[in-house]
Every structure is written in structure tokens, then in C-alpha cells.
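If your schedule permits, I should be very grateful for your opinion on a structural question. The matter concerns a single protein, recorded as an amino acid sequence and a row of C-alpha cells. Could you please explain, in whatever detail you think fit, how the C-alpha cells follow from the sequence? I set the record out below, with my sincere thanks for your time.

——
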Amino acid sequence: MFDDDPSKPLVSIALATYNGRTYLPELLASLEAQSWPNLEVVVSDDASSDGTPELLAAYAGRVPVRLVGDGTRAGIVGNFERALAGCRGEYVALADQDDVWAPEKITDLMRELQSVESARGNAMPVLAFCDIELVDSTLCCLSRSLFDVTAKSRGAGRLRDFLLSNHVPGCAMLVNRATLERALPFPAGIVMHDWWLAMVVASFGEMRHVAAPHLKYRQHDGNAVGASATNQREARDECAAEAAQRRGASRRRQIDGIADQVRVFAQRFGAELPADARDDMHAFSRGVACWRGAFEFVMISHTGESFIRAVKMLRRLRANVLSFGVETRRPSFSSRLRQRRGAPRSIS
């Protein structure tokens, strides 16, 4: 049960809302039940029309709720950026409006994150994430773990693991202030905020996984983003030609999104990247350029996709997608393969 204790570091919960009135009471109740004693909820609303801002403004629970921004339409990335920018805590968790948190979520993630800071200092970006239970709109369990029913990996931790896709939904994340100082403001053109945060920490810091499924991750027709394995929305009467056309358009959007996310990341950080991250970018570039490079990249990475699909995705990317502004000596393929499960990375 929540019990205000200012001796513990403040954890801000960044919540981006859009027409979320239906599920918000359950989320807020689960935040009230957190065992971590010093919390605030920072909300940015994306021009909701269902009474969401009014519900939040009238909320009078024990965890303070603070609305930031002007409530104008910003899209999912801009809305989360407003919420994150308004957070006062040294640690920040991201929340989706329709999920439900277990009482120990923040406490367990803080324990893991602070253990890294104790060993390596608090100037390095750190991200801790919990496991995720997939549920339907009524909170009935669909899978005890997102990672058991998708190609996403609990072991993703290097930049190369996040260049084709994200593994960690924002609602499972807790980050330290050093992460936000490195990641914000979000540059124009990024596809998803949580993917960007993961790429930043995988490049400049350390990621830690907490095995407990501390999050009930709702899958329903109103999701902005859902688990692909459980969120199929094809119409039953859709003809084969229409289905193929739709899937083709979806693949093109996905490839364009990868190209945009990686290009902006390279432009933002370029030569600042530590050696391991530069090696990963080089390997990705080679994977885009030739079949051999694509096979090598997929063999050493947790791509979040099946092997064949990941190879095809690399080859569909335009050969000129990347302009890193860095040159790096490429390690041998055998040494990169040995590093897949990886020794700790150097941070420089």
C-alpha cells in the first residue's frame, strides 16, 4: 500500500493519455497500490474527447497526479515527450492508460536499476524492465509472458538487438535521469519513444531484466501498439488479394519506419557512439548492403524477428539508408558470434 516516504527517491510515472477514460480507474488504482513509497504521476493528454482530462483533474488519490502541457494533439511520441519532460523524479517509469501494475513493480525495478548505479555510478543511462503478462480487455490471461509468444527477447541489450525492432514496451520500463538527459528532446522523425529510449540505453548504458510479470498488458482494438502475436485484426471476409495488398503496405511502412528510426539515431549521435555501438551500426550497414552481411548480422543479434524474416527485412532496406559519420574496424565474424550472449560492453 502506498505510504508517502520522502526519504526514498522520487519516482515519476509518465502517463500519456488519449480517450482513456474506460480503463484509467484500474490503472490509477494499481498505481495507488504500489509498494514504492514516493511517487508522482505526470500526465500529458493528447486532445481527448471522452472526459479523460476532467477525470484526471478531479482525481484525489494518495499518489499526486499532475497534468502537463496544453492538451493539444501531439501524437504518441510527442505526447510521451511532454509527459517525460514534466517529470521531476530522478527515476521515471512509463505507463500506458489501459494497463494494470502489480504492487511490487516499481520496487523490484528500482532494486535492479539501483544495483547497477551502485556498481557503475548514476551518470550512466540504465533501463530496467519487467516481464509482461498479456491479457484481454477483461484482464483474462492470454500469456504469462510476452517473450514466450513473440520473437522478442529478454536478453536484448546491445544496440544491434534494437536496430530492426524494439523488444521492450515502454510500459515495462523504468529509467534513470541520465537516460532522459541523453535521450531528450526526441528528434523529429523517430517512430516510437520507447524504441528510442531502448536504443539510447543499449548504446550508452546498461539494460536489466526483472523476470516477474509485473504488468498486465491489455490487448484490445483500442491499443496504439500491441503484441503482434495476439493482436490480429484481419476481417474474416477480406479476400486474398485485399489481404495481400494490406500486408504488403504494412511491410513497407515497417521498413520505412526502421529506416527513419535508425537514420535519425545515427544523425543524432554519430561519432559519440561507444566502440561496441559503432561496430553494431557497421554490421547493420553491411547487412543492408549484401546478403552475406545480412546473414551475419542476424546470426549475432536478437532481432525480435524470425531468422528468415529478419534477413528479408535487412535486404528490403535501402542501401543508402545509413550515414553514420563514423569509421570503425569491423571485428571478425567469428568474434562477433562469440559475443552474442556477450561479455559486458565497454562504455566510452
In short: The radius of gyration is 20 Å. Residues 247-338 form one domain. The longest helix spans residues 240-269. The chain has two domains: 11-218, 247-338.
